[in-house]
Amino acid sequence: DRTPTADGPTSGRTRTRPPPRLGAMLDITQAAAEALARRVAVVLCTVIDRGGSTPRGLGAKMLVREDGSIVGTIGGGAVEHAVRERAQEALRTGRPERYAVHLTRELAMCCGGRMEVLIDPLFPPPMLLIFGAGHVGTALASVAGAAGFAVTVVDSREEWASAERLPGADVRCADPLDELATLPFSPQTFVVITTHDHALDERLVERCLQQPHRYLGMIGSRAKAVRILGRLEAQGASRASLDAVVCPIGLDLGAEEPGEIAVSVVAQLIQARRRGTHGTGTRPTQARSATGEP
Fold first, then answer.
1. How far apart are CA 294 and CA 292, in angstroms?
2. pLDDT value at position 7?
3. Please, how many CA atoms are within 13 Å of residue 248, restricted to the half-sphere of its CB?
4. CA 294 – CA 119 distance, rounded (Å)
5. What pLDDT sits at residue 114?
6. Positions of the chain with pLDDT under 70
7. Looking at the DSSP assignment, which residues form a beta bridge with residue 172?
8. Taken in order 252, 253, 256, 262, is the CA torsion positive or negative?
9. Phi, psi of 236, deg, nearest 5
10. pTM for the predicted model, two decimal places
11. DSSP strand pairing (127-131 vs 150-155)
12. In 57-185, beta strands by DSSP E
């Protein structure tokens, strides 16, 4: 299908419209890219096997959003409804699924064939919020970025919170407590508190407990954890929420230098992300850095 370009029909130049299937794929790709850029998860559903009479063939695709709306189609009707429901479940579990179904026996469709659909949830990079741009915070931002985290660092000190010191991170030179309301907290957000001020650490733990998050950790010793978490419990914080705060942070690698500590912390973040655990009972007491960070 060819149409004249802006140069007019006599220019001899034409623009070729993409065939319908390619056009649908472009729509799906664009919708997925836009959603992930907004840090919104989506699910890509693809027909990977079929037999007999089916509404769509191999390779047909459909994108399912969190609200159930779709881009593209795998054939409509009961099979599409069933796949949409499973896609929304995949967003909750984070696990892909191969869904095989006989259209007549299981879904009462007239087609008579069978289809298998790969239901693949797509998530934006995990968000890591780092409070404190000191030696450990800076090393943590670098290692976490290499591990695939989208990193935001917040520190009020201009000499520490700079793009030059923290390449690849979203750097915010602001009071962390004032900046909290603007940060992208969600049930998939990882939070690490590494500031230079114990009182600020305590206030940040208190405020971050009120926000959705996947992981909340604070640098420091077990003694520091006992003092700060004990005070927060006395002020009314629930024991269950405080028990989920990780302090000391990082897996027990014998880490001492900031870069080593960063590796141990990112390893723990990956463990929490992939296995849903924090490595409880294996966290080292962190060394004190040259800036006085715990």
1. 6
2. 46
3. 24
4. 45
5. 95
6. 1-21, 277-294
7. 154
8. negative
9. 115, -5
10. 0.73
11. parallel
12. 61-64, 70-72, 97-102, 114-122, 127-131, 150-155, 170-173
